[in-house]
Predict the 3D structure of the following.
Amino acid sequence: MGLKDIRQRIAKAEAGSGRDPGSVQLIAVSKVQPDARVAAVLDQGHRLFGENKVQEAAGKWPAFRERHEGVSVHLIGPLQSNKARQAMDLFEAIHSVDRPKIAKAIARLAQEMGACPDLFIQVNTGEEEQKAGILPADTDAFVAECRALDLPVRGLMCIPPVDEAPSLHFALLAKMAARNGLDGLSMGMSSDFEEAVSFGATHVRVGSAIFGERDYS
Ligand SMILES: *Cc1c(COP(=O)(O)O)cnc(C)c1O
């Protein structure tokens, strides 16, 4: 547990699967965590973080950014169109582009603002009713649609079903990214990031294994 341990495990997983050292970016998922825990990880020199709510990120990251240079925060949770502008101001990357409506809203704002965060398309690899993400069968067309809108699509993202072997989903996502010429793979969380690395993850999203359990009470 802890940042150092997770970094070591990522390095080991990179080496074990013949990946270049440093080819995997560690997104420290700070949602719900007390500020003191986030500050401790910043003090250890870590600069890449993930949040799943626009509002929560808006409440804490401006202050942290004033105190620390080089911070990068990625949105890994669902995005509503009416929060798109705020999200584009707050985040260096958005991992949850999952439908034409949000893609069009981002494209319109990118034109207006003259800038756009890096984008990942979220794929619902498990085809779960309750989960966000574009369906696997619709992914190629959606990637093409985003590219036609001139959006900076960097890769694909998935959250595998809790009750299935994640490896199947990691393999599927990697295959879909490759056939669409996308390098970025945002996959792997506290319980399965090493496996994700072995399937080609470029961004792992690790929360509780770095910060400790989240207390929602
Ligand atoms: C919360 C969250 C994570 C991190 O989960 P842990 O199990 O704490 O590592 C990763 N990805 C997404 C999309 C999340 O919402």
